[in-house]
Amino acid sequence: MKGELFGVFGLVALSVLVRGDDPSSSKDNPTGPSSGSRRSVQRALEPYNDWVDTWRGVGQPKRGSSKGAWTEEADWAWKIGRDSAGLQFEVKDSKLFQSGLLSYDPEHKKFRFTAKQADGKSRDYVGDRAEQNKLVLVSADKESDDEQRLTIQMLHADRMLLLAESKPAGQSSFSRLAEIGYTRKGGSFASGADSGPKCIVTGGRGTITVAYKGKTYYVCCTGCRQAFLDDPEGTIAEAAERAKKEEAERKKK
Known about the structure:
The chain is α+β, with helices and mostly antiparallel strands. The protein has helices at 2-6, 36-45, 190-193, 222-230, 232-252, and strands at residues 53-60, 70-80, 85-92, 97-105, 110-117, 122-129, 135-141, 146-156, 159-167, 175-184, 208-212, 215-219. The strands form two sheets. The chain has a ten-stranded antiparallel barrel. A two-stranded antiparallel ribbon has the order 11-12.
């Protein structure tokens, strides 16, 4: 079992180093977000805004058993560039994961996850949003002829579940490798999720402040903070456009 666990895909995000809080005196950075393609990818990922945070996880190869179990700490954060957007995941002390990036392919309308497994090998996953807003990602290994499946689901505002499964060659169905139950670190998210400030970049929950031209804006993570600092004018314009569309949708209802 241990060998299988360490041979499974993985996820990790690197925190973005931010230089300064107020970019109003600097020149425009050409790496800032402005691409239409990037915006479409970002919109597809925005239903998973609630993932952005720090989580405490308990992994169990067998549900209800402490044998082989472990604890870990994970962070989800946005990674946004001029022509790309994705959700990165950083995890410490996991028996399954190292690193990965979740993105979206607008042309094929598929979610894509590029993972670095615990053994250091890379593996690509493709999937769709399923019922109850689950994200199901599947990968086939041509060398070993096995399939692996990752299912991520928000059970409620402060609880997330990640199920890792495998289907070796010759096996007709997937079998469980491990399940990780995550609890949001730092208190309840639900109490302020709807009424609190929103991230200027993605519309998620705003938890970090950033200043521009004497005004304070909110972002949800260091990735969005850097995206704002790279192109504050473009980000503010996009947020205004997004707010107009949301208002128009509300009036239709």
